[in-house]
Amino acid sequence: MNDEKSTELLAGIAARRSCRAFENTPPAPELLASVLKYATFSPSAKNAQPWEVYVVAGERLDALRAKMDEAFHQGRGVPMHAGREMPAWQARARELNGALAPVLERQGWEPKSFIGRCLRFFDAPAAAIVCMDGEPSPLHLLDIGMFTQTLCLSAAGHGLASCIIAYTLIVEPAIREFLRLPAERRVMITVALGFPAKDQPMAQFRSSRAETGENVHFVRS
Ligand SMILES: Cc1cc2nc3c(=O)[nH]c(=O)nc-3n(C[C@H](O)[C@H](O)[C@H](O)COP(=O)(O)O)c2cc1C
C-alpha cells in the first residue's frame, strides 16, 4: 500500500455523486468564486484552458430557467446527438433508468417531468454553463469534460452538491440568447450547484458502477 495515499482526496472523489434535489439556500458568492478558482486547476491539452464558464444564480437563474422552459414548451428544442451508443452503454443507461424510476416515485415526481426538471437545473440555486469557442476538437472536448469533473469535485470539496446536465442542450439557443454569447461560443454542458436537500430521495440516489473487470483491463502479459 502507498503510504502517501490521500484519504481526503479519495473521500472527495467518492463524495461527488449527482444530486437532483437542492436546498433553496443560495451559496454565498465567495463560496462559488472559490469553487470556480479550484476548478481552474483542471488540466487541459497544451494548457489551452478552453472553457468559458458562466455562473448564474438568484434572480438571473430564475430568468434563465423561465426562458429555457418557454423554449421547451414552445417546441423550440433541438435534438441532442448522443452519437453511436455501444450495446453495453445502452444496457447501463437502461439500468440507470430502472434504478431511478422508484426513486422518482418516492420523490413524488412524474417520470415524464424528468426532462423538464433537468431544464430547471432541478431547481438548484446556482448553475454553471460551460462553453467553448470555435469548433470543438476531440482534445478540447476532453478539456471541457475534465474541467466539468474538476468543477464538481471542487463543489464537493466546498460542501456543495452538483449534477452535470446535458439535457439542457436541447434548448441551447435559448441559453445562448440569454447569456448573449458571441457567435463562435457554444454551450458544451451545464452543471447544477447547491446544497443538497439531504432528506429527499433524489438527493440520496446513488447510481451503480460496472464491476472493475468489465471495463478496466490490466495488461499483465
Ligand atoms: C456528460 C454528462 C451528461 C449528463 N447529463 C445528465 C442529465 O441531463 N440529467 C441528469 O439527471 N444527469 C445527467 N448526468 C449525470 C449522470 O446520470 C451521472 O453522472 C451518472 O448516472 C453517474 O452517477 P453519479 O454522477 O451520481 O456518480 C450527466 C453526466 C454526464 C457526465
Question: Describe it for me?
Answer:
This is Nitroreductase. One of its GO terms (molecular function) is oxidoreductase activity. By secondary structure, the protein is an alpha+beta fold. The protein has one domain: NADH Oxidase (3-Layer(aba) Sandwich). The chain is about 45% helix and about 15% strand. It has nine helices and four strands, in the order ααβαααβαβαβαα. A four-stranded antiparallel β-sheet has the order 1-2-4-3, sandwiched between helices. Helix 3 packs antiparallel against helix 7 (about 170-180). The longest helix is centred in the middle third of the chain and has 21 residues, at about 85-105. The model has no long low-confidence stretch (mean pLDDT about 95). The site of flavin mononucleotide has 12 residues, from strand 3.
Descriptors:
9 helices; oxidoreductase activity; alpha+beta; globular; NADH Oxidase; 221 residues; 45% helix; binds flavin mononucleotide; single chain; four-stranded antiparallel beta sheet
Summarize the structure.
The chain is α+β, with helices and mostly antiparallel strands. The chain is 45% helix and 14% strand.
- State mean pLDDT (0 to 100 scale): 95
Taken as a percent bin, the fraction of beta residues is 5-15%
Q: Which molecules other than protein and nucleic acid are bound?
A: flavin mononucleotide
Total DSSP E strands:
4
As laid out across the biggest beta sheet, the strand order is: 1-2-4-3
Category from helices, strands and their pairing: alpha+beta
Helix-strand pattern: HHEHHHEHEHEHH
Note poorly predicted spans: none
- What is the makeup of the main sheet? 4 strands, antiparallel
Helix content: 40-55%
CATH topology: NADH Oxidase
Give the CA-CA distance, first to last residue: 23 Å
CATH class: Alpha Beta
